[in-house]
């Protein structure tokens, strides 16, 4: 009898970060955490030796990453870029200087000084509201762990050394680990920790490898050689499945692959409903390197280009030319017909390497986004000059985040007009009629939508922040995330109000939050008559197909029905029942509201 048949089947729920289903043999990546031990240094000689140890470990860590880049020389894209990010952190003089300062000031060994430095940076990142930006501490920690391993003199087990077709199970994986995964060898992966916005998750999506993270104790439940199922769509991992479960998931996998192939085949068809309403479908991106994937999955435009990454972990602020180069690459990207560039949604706390910028105790509702831009005008103007210069190369829109009232728009537009004048006087070509839009993500913006609409060219609803502000939910607090409901009746009423006001004013209204890419929400958003939806590239084919197989008439009927319900639970159940009946061919796994 097979050993796996003697073991109990275990099902674990985590966070699906890359869709698809794999069934295979587990390989537990055995990486014991290196513990930082403290010992005091007696004098100058020992301090000097510790600094030399630290510098050597930096050099060794950098060489390891360069070796990974060499292995990836024929595989361009996000993976290679993220290895560059880790090299950039290693090259950050401020980071190294802080470790050395801790060695000198506290007379402690390099390991403990590194731990102190990482703790200081973690405190800064913990105050960041934005999921994506807060997760960037993981990259700093990955680099720190690599340095620590080199200080210990121990060898790091590499993903690239794994033989055979396996499903990797680990406490955590770095982006550098993930980019080394060949789809011919590594079928998928599952980890104890991690989140949707981690770079590891981004890489998994980019190489289309099914992955589930945040399982908490998967490494305790699995041994190398166990049969394991990873369902990256539903966020489920099953250990030691019995034959019936394996057969069921093999059927699901076949269904999923057929459906994905069918949807990809039609991904480039326009998103037009059966009764003739056209919906603009774009991609949310953080990196220029994501454009090929976005176009492949059916986007013909970039609905949201998040520009914050240009600033993170840089010792010095990016120049106008660095901004311009990035924006131009997005605008002229092959297959891209339009691009909406969001000005940076940052506060002083997010400029990790520049302590001279404003410090902020509560960046969630403090000095961030447009508020920070209006205070740090020269920084704002550098970015605006670059966006306006890039606008000469294609259809471009400027999107202003976290607008809470009319005065912010007036002040921002005055600065934009000033920058336009400067560029024109210098003889630099720009799109003088560039469209200016705002994010609707603060409750006051919904209430003041009529007045705001008179002063902008378009709205883009950012549901991620709007939902948590309206429902008073900290979406990263595990104790209350069950209350984070995109289909809450209050949220639907606010979206309807914004759309109605925008259309009355003759401007388009789009959505760029996670809700836009949730297929369960697609019929409701059609009923609300949103003009555009921007989402992660992987979500585009399914959402477009649902749009093409729907009518505005039936979507409005569904909307009117759910608007009579007083609770989010009733609305979710109604929509789920509708989707399972109306689109059974699109349901290889249980529908879930994200």
Description:
45% of the residues lie in helices and 13% in strands. The protein is of the alpha/beta class. It folds into three domains: 117 residues, 3-Layer(bba) Sandwich (Glucose Oxidase, domain 1), CATH 3.50.30.10; 109 residues, Enzyme I, Chain A, domain 2, CATH 1.10.274; 324 residues, Phosphoenolpyruvate-binding domains (TIM Barrel, Alpha-Beta Barrel). The strands form two sheets. An eight-stranded mixed beta sheet has the order 1-8-7-3-4-5-6-2. Strands 9-10-11-12-13-14-15-16 form an eight-stranded parallel beta barrel. The longest helix is centred in the first third of the chain and has 28 residues. It is globular, with a radius of gyration of 25 Å. The N terminus and C terminus are likely disordered.
SSE blueprint and pairings:
Layout: E1 10-13, E2 15-18, E3 21-28, H1 44-71, H2 78-91, H3 93-106, H4 110-126, H5 131-134, H6 137-152, E4 166-170, H7 175-179, E5 186-191, H8 199-206, E6 211-213, H9 218-221, E7 227-231, E8 236-239, H10 243-265, E9 280-285, H11 291-296, E10 301-306, H12 320-331, E11 338-342, H13 369-375, H14 377-390, E12 395-400, H15 406-425, E13 435-440, H16 443-447, H17 449-453, E14 458-461, H18 463-471, H19 489-504, E15 508-511, H20 522-527, E16 532-535, H21 540-548, H22 552-562, H23 568-582
Parallel strand pairs: 3-4, 4-5, 5-6, 9-10, 9-16, 10-11, 11-12, 12-13, 13-14, 14-15, 15-16
Antiparallel strand pairs: 1-8, 2-6, 3-7, 7-8
Helix pairs in contact: 1-2, 1-3, 1-6, 2-6, 3-4, 4-6, 12-14, 13-14, 14-15
